[in-house]
Design brief:
It is a single chain. The chain is mainly α. It has a domain of 96 residues. It contains 5 helices and 2 strands. A two-stranded antiparallel ribbon has the order 1-2. A hairpin with a 5-residue loop joins strand 1 and strand 2. It starts with 7 loop residues before the first helix and ends in a 20-residue tail after the last helix.
Length: 152
């Protein structure tokens, strides 16, 4: 088999689109810089789109032994790559907004219930302890609780 006759750009583009889809939940969700906005995945999808475009152009412009079959295969592979991108966009940007609001979440200004959590050193610390322990000789007036989207 002659390597020049294989439309490698098309197949590498398809594999890159699947890698871009699978890398978000398995790799990029672990880092806040890529979890909050999936720019790395969008770059991978852009690379996949360029490779798919080059592969489709090559299939439609080349002199193949089976010109009709290569055009059909290239079209199907390109549509599959576009479908993978559409699924990613729907899941991340549209589907995530469809999640129901948490009705039991504390509201702004609402008094937080008593809780005990581990601090950064692993020592258990309670909300009451934070409110009564003096800092620089002064009793604290309040505690700021920050809730952020994380992973479990």
């Amino acid at each position: 088999m002659n390597f020049r006759k294989i439309n490698w750009q098309l197949w590498v583009g398809l594999v890159t689109s699947f890698v871009a889809l699978a890398s978000y939940p398995f790799v990029f969700v672990q880092f806040p810089i890529t979890r909050n906005f999936p720019w790395a995945n969008l770059l991978l999808f852009a690379l996949a789109a360029v490779l798919l475009w080059v592969g489709v152009r090559r299939a439609f412009a080349g002199d193949n032994a089976h010109p009709g079959i290569s055009k059909i295969v290239a079209s199907v592979v390109a549509l599959l790559g576009v479908a993978v991108f559409a699924m990613f966009v729907f899941a991340i940007f549209i589907g995530a907004r469809q999640l129901p609001a948490s009705k039991g979440a504390p509201q702004i200004g609402q008094k937080a219930p008593e809780f005990t959590l581990a601090d950064t050193n692993g020592k258990a610390i309670s909300l009451a302890e934070l409110l009564t322990t003096p800092i620089n000789g002064k009793a604290p007036r309040g505690v700021l609780l920050v809730f952020y989207r994380g992973y479990w």
